[in-house]
């Protein structure tokens, strides 16, 4: 495995690989944005958020696959972007070599030897058909195709989903090798928060189409606290500050912003959350939903 130095936070003058300003996209009842986001060159940015939060929509907007209703997205030339999407766009009857032959003319820096080395490293056979690849194998093929044209920016939508633990570590190692060149940048989405812990420099938490947090991985867990208290420790005012409130037989537990801890009494225990705690609690929605469901009066009123 290659050693990549611990990242420092991007300086304000670090150039941007991706710049998103005021991005808005409506898809049926779902409303994304307005989103503002900067992906600094030389850093790895990880998107995390519940199912349906808007991660793929944001990534597709970056790739020009989704037309924004408002706002702007600035990315490098298509030739310089490597893409790994969760829904492969390859023709099912293509063999591994045919997939490479089809993509090669689209990229000025295509390197056939690099493609062969990557497929060999992943254990993919040249004559395997796309439709016969397992989910993990087709992700590996997408990664080989993406890296074979020497991109500056890699955009990957849930690249580790469907990979076994060894393949996941292999992929992370490969991406670390990619990041040894400080002109390179990576954007990826994931539900596997250990991927963020081991690989992301900057974390973006998206919930319900809105960015709740952008910053260094360590700052994320410092921006929130897991609060646990007795039944009398929660007032209507402090309840409004909670995310993902869960009432327990002995009281309550909820996520709160660190800046809101003063609103809770000394009986409430505050602990540092995990990234999973933050994502899961934000994903459960605002407190008023959980109270409404817990309260039969609200339920019958809604029925
Ligand atoms: N083509 C479409 N037409 C209508 N709604 C869509 C379309 N594509 C996505 N959506 C909706 O947009 C919302 C956001 O979807 P998106 O795929 O961006 O979420 P996600 O965060 O990537 O979720 P997941 O983690 O489940 O992949 C969802 O409610 C989804 O149903």
From TrEMBL:
Give the ABC transporter domain ranges. Answer: 12-233
- A Pfam family this chain is assigned to: ABC_tran
Q: Which InterPro entries match?
A: AAA+_ATPase, ABC_transporter-like_ATP-bd, ABC_Transporter_VariousFunc, P-loop_NTPase
Question: From what superkingdom does this record's organism come?
Answer: Bacteria
Q: Which UniProt keywords apply?
A: ATP-binding, Nucleotide-binding, Transport
Q: Which PROSITE patterns match?
A: ABC_TRANSPORTER_2
Gene3D superfamilies assigned: P-loop containing nucleotide triphosphate hydrolases
Q: Which GO terms describe its molecular function?
A: ATP binding; ATP hydrolysis activity
Which protein are we looking at? ABC-2 type transport system ATP-binding protein
């Amino acid at each position: 495995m290659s050693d990549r130095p611990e990242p420092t936070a991007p300086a304000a003058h670090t150039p941007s690989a991706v710049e998103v300003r005021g991005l808005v996209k409506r898809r049926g009842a779902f409303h994304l944005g307005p989103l503002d986001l900067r992906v600094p060159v030389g850093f790895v940015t990880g998107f995390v958020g519940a199912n349906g939060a808007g991660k793929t929509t944001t990534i597709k907007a970056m790739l020009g696959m989704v037309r924004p209703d408002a706002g702007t997205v600035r990315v490098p030339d298509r030739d310089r972007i490597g893409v790994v999407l969760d829904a492969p766009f390859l023709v099912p009857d293509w063999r591994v070599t045919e997939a490479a032959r089809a993509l090669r003319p689209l990229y000025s820096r295509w390197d056939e030897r690099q493609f062969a080395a990557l497929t060999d490293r992943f254990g993919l056979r040249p004559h395997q058909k796309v439709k016969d690849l397992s989910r993990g194998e087709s992700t590996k093929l997408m990664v080989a195709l993406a890296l074979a044209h020497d991109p500056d920016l890699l955009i990957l939508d849930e690249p580790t989903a469907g990979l076994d633990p060894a393949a996941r570590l292999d992929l992370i190692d490969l991406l670390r090798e990619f990041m040894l060149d400080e002109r390179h940048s990576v954007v990826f989405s994931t539900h596997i928060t250990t991927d963020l812990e081991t690989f992301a420099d900057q974390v973006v938490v998206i919930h319900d189409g809105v960015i709740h947090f952008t910053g260094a991985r360590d700052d994320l867990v410092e921006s929130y606290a897991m609060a646990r208290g007795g039944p009398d420790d929660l007032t209507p005012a402090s309840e409004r500050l909670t995310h993902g409130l869960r009432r327990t037989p002995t009281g309550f537990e909820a996520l709160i912003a660190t800046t809101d801890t003063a609103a809770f009494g000394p009986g409430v225990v505050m602990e540092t959350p995990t990234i999973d705690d933050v994502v899961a609690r934000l994903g459960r929605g605002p407190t008023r939903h959980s109270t409404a469901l817990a309260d039969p009066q609200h339920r019958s009123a809604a029925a």
